[in-house]
Design goal:
Keywords: Actin-binding, Cytoplasm, Cytoskeleton. One of its GO terms (molecular function) is actin filament binding. One of its GO terms (cellular component) is cortical actin cytoskeleton. By secondary structure, the chain is an alpha/beta fold. The protein has a single domain, classed as Severin, CATH 3.40.20. It is built from four helices and six strands, in the order E-H-E-E-H-E-E-H-E-H. A six-stranded mixed β-sheet has the order 1-3-2-4-5-6, sandwiched between helices. The termini are far apart.
Length: 148
């Protein structure tokens, strides 16, 4: 059975991608009693820390977060992170379905720089995510090189 994705998810995806919007994260999980119907369960403008506060061990779903990166005051860049979340208390059958359903989710959430799967809040450190974003971005001008 295919995942039913509510239209509000695509709308929220566009809101987060809009530079003029203050909303910088959303979380999509399953409607009560409908394990194949994905809905928007939370949004906010408080960044990664507010997103993390929304997560719980009993929930499975996907988060989408807009993050600002900069090496200095002149190089501001916006990056997007997809967070497949599967809390530690989620049952085995739900966990198994997530690996199949992510393909449907990626048909809607098409543009992201990195994917950071997590089952514990400790796996979503802002410093570690920023490091992964820098590595995914290619050139890193933050370090001094002794090769010259």
């Amino acid at each position: 059975m295919s995942l039913i994705i509510e239209p509000s998810i695509a709308e929220q995806y566009e809101v987060i991608r809009d530079d003029k919007s203050e909303t910088n994260w959303a979380f999509f999980d399953f409607a009560n009693g409908k394990p194949d119907r994905l809905q928007v369960s939370g949004t906010g403008s408080g960044g990664l820390s507010e997103f993390i506060a929304h997560l719980s061990p009993e929930v499975a779903g996907w988060g989408y977060v807009r993050m600002n990166m900069s090496n200095d005051e002149y190089s501001q860049r916006v990056k997007f992170v997809l967070v497949p979340w599967c809390g530690e208390s989620v049952g085995v059958m739900r966990r198994a379905k997530l690996s199949i359903q992510i393909a449907d989710v990626k048909n809607v959430i098409r543009s992201f720089h990195i994917e950071v799967p997590a089952s514990q809040v400790s796996e979503l450190s802002e410093q570690e995510i920023m490091t992964k974003l820098r590595r995914a971005g290619g050139a890193n001008y933050d370090r001094q090189s002794s090769n010259y």
